[in-house]
Each structure stands twice: as C-alpha cells, then as structure tokens.
Amino acid sequence: MHRLEHLLENNARWAEQIKSENPAFFEKLSKQQTPEYLWIGCADSRVPANQIVGLLPGDLFVHRNVANLVVQTDLNCMSVMQFAVEYLKVKHIIVTGHYGCGGVKAAMEHKQLGLIDYWIRNIRDVYFRHADTLDEIDDEAERLDRLCELNVIQQVANVSHTNIVQNAWDQGQELTIHGWIYSIKDGILRKLIEPITRAEQIDPHYRIR
User: Fold this and answer.
1) Which of 66, 166, 178, 206 is the most exposed, fewest CB within 10 Å of its CB?
2) Percent of the chain with pLDDT strictly greater than 70
3) Considering only CA atoms, which of 129, 150, 130 is closest in space to residue 192?
C-alpha cells in the first residue's frame, strides 16, 4: 500500500463514472472555471466542501485551513480571496466552521502545542472577547460548540473588513458573505447570521470609505 494504488484505482473509477454520466464534462471543465462560490472552511477531513453542498468540481472555489480562519496577514487566504473576487467574480463567500472543531478545542485548552499556537491565538482572542458568556456554559462540549459558532461569526466579519470585499462592493459587484456551521453528527449545515451584502452592514470603524 506504500504506492497508494488503491487511490489511483478509485480515481479511475470516479473519472469513468463522471464521463459515463456526462461525456463532455472534463473537456468543458478543462477550458475554464466559473464558480459562483468561494468556500472558506476547516481543513478537517470530515468536512468535504463539494460533497456536503452537492456541487461538482468547478462549481466551488475552496480555501481550507485549521479552524477556518480569515487572518488578514495570511497571504495565502488573502490571495485566494482576491483571485476569487476580482478574477473569478464569485457572487458568494461562504465561511463554514463545524461543531467539535479540533483547532477551536485546542484554543480552549490553554496548552502549549508548538507552531500552531501562533495560528490558534486568533481563536483565543475570540474566546477572550466572549469569555463572560462562554464561561457561563458549564458543559464543555456545549461551550466548545458555541465557540465554534462565534469563531465563524468573527471570520465572516474579518472577510467583510478586507479591502478586497469592500472594493468589490464599491464598484457595484454583487457579493454576499455567509456564515454557516456544519454538524458532523447529522451532516447538516446551519446558517449562523444573516448574509452581508454591503458595507453599511459592518461596523463603521472597519469601513475603508
């Protein structure tokens, strides 16, 4: 199994199935990508972006990292956003977390973990911002799930604060930001906030114009 032949065989079967259902699929897909959606999600292997929203390759532009963070000094994330918004002209940015997230859990435990400490510090900031409310939740699993929700809400705000998004709105581009959370236990996505469609919906302190 060192050569992963079973994965290559899986791929061959998958490609044949797609071609049997739609013979022109890969030819069309190879010419361009025109997704309407940018998905910013967690790198957790149990949260496969395309599958859980029922979309085929080419329909969803995807960026994933530990705990679905949007950090404005993360040039990887910012580059993905800029390409999606300015060049692909996506109409929706969907920030999607999931309950029981390991990255969020690590941020709650206040342990030294190594390099990832610098990354999850962003989640610890979310915790401290909402500490009074979170500390009232006695059940640890419920507290974790609430922090997962609050983390998504903060990352949606971070998306809306970027000049990438605000410039698009200023130029009249149709662009909506969503905050969702996924339950691995039942496979269902849930909406956490109302969609954000314009700069007037965000705190004036974060507007660039």
Assistant:
1) 206
2) 100
3) 150
